[in-house]
Amino acid sequence: MNRVYNFSAGPSMLPMQVLESAQKDLIDYQGCGMSVMEMSHRSPEYDVIIKDAESLLRKVMSIPDNYKVLFLQGGASTQFAAVPLNLMNKNGKADYVVTGQFSKKAYKEAQKYGDVKLVASSEDKNNTYIPKLTKDDFRPDADYVHICFNNTIYGTKWNYIPDTGDIPLVADMSSCILSEPVDVTKFGLIYAGAQKNMAPAGLTVVIVREDLIGNAKDITPAMLDYKLMADGESMYNTPPCWCIYIAKLVYEWLLSIGGLEGMKKVNVEKADILYNYLDNQNYYIAPVIPECRSMMNVTFVTGDAELDKKFAKEAGAKGFKNVKGHRSVGGMRASIYNAMPTEGVLALVEFMKEFAKNNPKG
Ligand SMILES: *Cc1c(COP(=O)(O)O)cnc(C)c1O
Known about the structure:
Elements lengths: L4 E2 L9 H9 L19 H18 L5 E6 L2 H13 L5 E6 L2 H10 L4 E7 L22 E5 L1 E2 L4 E2 L11 E4 L16 E5 L10 E6 L16 H6 L9 H16 L2 H21 L17 E4 L4 H13 L2 E2 L10 E4 L6 H17 L4
Parallel strand pairs: 1-12, 3-4, 3-5, 5-8, 8-9
Antiparallel strand pairs: 2-10, 6-7, 9-10, 11-13
Helix pairs in contact: 1-6, 2-6, 3-4, 6-7, 7-9
This protein binds pyridoxal-5'-phosphate.
Pyridoxal-5'-phosphate binds next to helix 3.
């Protein structure tokens, strides 16, 4: 067997222990004679899996009892509509901050459902920073404020939680959830597609404060209504059974390595290795301003599109897969999610040094 270092932004690496555990139970899940993929979601065996998944996630993220945890489908992109449909229900107003492509999509989608204001954007500097906002930047009668906490494509991260006063803060955490502890009580709603840092593609997790649900707009499709999903305990219809099972194994793995505090230590170490290298050479350029650097998605360029292309190709041939930047921004991006081992990052830096030496710039 030859596993590569997969720097994909998503779907991305899963912890080896999780894959091995799933493999061991694949054909005959704990003696029940079938795989989790074949099980009825209403069976007693599956009931244990989904309930364990929820309680483990609550434990890992310290989610208070007054928050619902929903295991849904449709990806983070479906939440771009579900959030306004469910939450833009008092004054019909919402404030959005655009710091990259996903938050821009969320902002555009929300415009279909009400009065949406762009309160700040980092597009003026190609999304290489996060705007500094205070309570006064938001409309006091907005039903919620929406941000994307980690910008997967540009490699930026909010290094502070904006103070929105009493206005619920909604955050897309698709590419940073479970990477470090986060104070859930500072948010009204957190959502994340699972395929970056949690499970295979097909699962979306929504963590929402109870008092915010139950007032969805009349036009809300049943499948997007948080109240229906919460009342059905994520089983209003068939949930993404297999993905939830893998997520459960990921939560167990996280607890086994010291929870999110333990995870953060490793993630800081990995990101430091890459950024320290980038800061102490002059071949590659890291465009993001240092205070806003993502711990999960590290972006860099050579400054020469041809060399960037060559880099991605040669890296791939050496087992460093998917280091090409997003098609819209070019350059390189190393996504170093939870499951990327420190050795992978160290090996990538060695490759970067070698590439710089072998490909002097004109
Ligand atoms: C990947 C990603 C999305 C889109 O997720 P889908 O599950 O593909 O809809 C949205 N937001 C962020 C921050 C992402 O990283």
